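Write out the 3D structure for:
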Amino acid sequence: MRTDTNRTLRRVFLTCLSVGFLVGGCTKESPADLLSQSKSLIQEKKYSDAITLLRQLMDKYPESEQAAEGQYMLGDTYIAFNKNFEQALNEYHVVVQNYPETRFAINAQFMIGYVLANFVGDYKQARMEYERFLELYSTEADSGLVQSVKFELENLGRDLNEIPQLKHISS
């Protein structure tokens, strides 16, 4: 009698467990869920896990409302995670190419120039990217960002000590 009860309990348990795995395995996370979870992971400095979720977002939902932001966040995360500037630049270029009408494209184009100038040291390419920013986005971008691009262009390759507005920072 006791053996029959144990078998029945075991079957019920295994059935519940199987149903749980099936239901849990079939749930589909929305683009908003993936983006939100990625942001939480980034705040926790779990960059590798965030990159994985952002890649899932881009692979599963490239046309979603959250795709441009997710793609942009990939660029930022590669910089924060391991200073992988080349990969960050690739991610920003994808934003500009695939989501050109979004505010994330505006920011990505700025970041392309900024990373090239301030981390990679390729001033010639940075100048071209900043000029592209002004050509594409000067009327749509925030005026502060446009001013930042103009400031960067005026001071490309200069040491902080050579820039009058920034001398107080380097002193």
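The chain has a mean pLDDT of 87.
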